[in-house]
Amino acid sequence: MKNQNNILALMAAMTLLFSSCIQEETAQPRKTDLVDAVFASGEVIAEEEYKVTAKAEGYLLQSFVVEGATVDPQMPLYQLSGEVQSAQLQNAQVVYADAVQNTKASAPAMAQLELQLQQSKSELALDQKIEQRYAQLLKTKAASQLEYDQMALQNEQSKRNVAINEKALADFKRAQLLNAENAKTQLQIQQQDYTDYFLRSSIHGTVLQVYQSDGDLVSRGETVALIGGGKQLARLFVSEEDINDIAINQQVVVRLNTDRDRVYDARISKIYPSFDQAEQSFVVEASFDNPPANLYHNTQLQANIVVADRKQAMVIPSEFLSNGDSVLLAGGAVKSVKIGIRNEQWVEVLDGLSTADKLIKPRS
Q1: 261 and 157, same structural domain?
Q2: Count of structural domains within the chain
Q3: Selection from 355, 285, 272 nearest residue 314 by Cα
Q4: Which residues pair with 32 in a beta bridge?
Q5: pLDDT tens-digit series, residues 232-258
Q6: Is the pLDDT higher at 188 or at 297?
Q7: Is the residue at 220 inside a domain?
């Protein structure tokens, strides 16, 4: 009975060994095209983005555009209430108009000084004639030296009066021109401040989002709307361990969440040099080769960035590689190999194997 049990145990062991041998998986190196890619999630963004931000505080009085509208640079988009600023602007306009008027010859003060100057010039001309007459009379003894000296003194006083009036008129003109220039500066300041109540875009683009409604109180520095311009791009988030494999102009295969049945080709166009703390990833941008007609802002997407592409590479299944650099040959020998790129399914073998070699899958 004991011998029978030994025989049964031996037969069971042989059956298990035979079964194990039968279940061994084998493979041979083969030639095929191999692509290595980095996965990245992301979203659709605009090439240019401009936040329409309030430079003054006020209620949103009027919206001139809606989401989806096309806008041009400096085009008024929104108006904030600014009654105080409007009054200050009107006052500055009145002050400037009055200052300009005072620089004209027809201005009362200017005309008065001009009249005084002309009168003094007329008096000087008369006094000069009288002095010349007394000079002739003095020669013929028809007038005394005292009389001549008095007329000469009167003539000098008339000259001084003309000079005084000329200076007064010139000083007044300069003062009025300076007042007009200062008033103009103040008017420009008030005009600029008033334009702050009209919110504009600095780029040509489309209104992507509006954050405020008519009647809302908007604070200085608060964003009212988002404008997107230029072409649409794929903004991709790449992990730290993969960023060194990314380079400009690499091919990207993009699948949009709005159209999961299709893929779109793109190319890496920009690599941001800094790690994005909010996303906990590095950020790169890709430009679509042929973007879809309906490409919505902020659409979520998944992408594969092609970092290597081998034509007719020698590959083995990934699970046949042991310890990262060796394989198990049929017959039990372990052989070191040099590997290249790899993906979840295949490993490229650069040296150490031929297509005639037979491999055994290592046991887990």
Answers
A1: no
A2: 2
A3: 355
A4: 313
A5: 999 999 999 999 999 999 999 999 999
A6: 297
A7: no
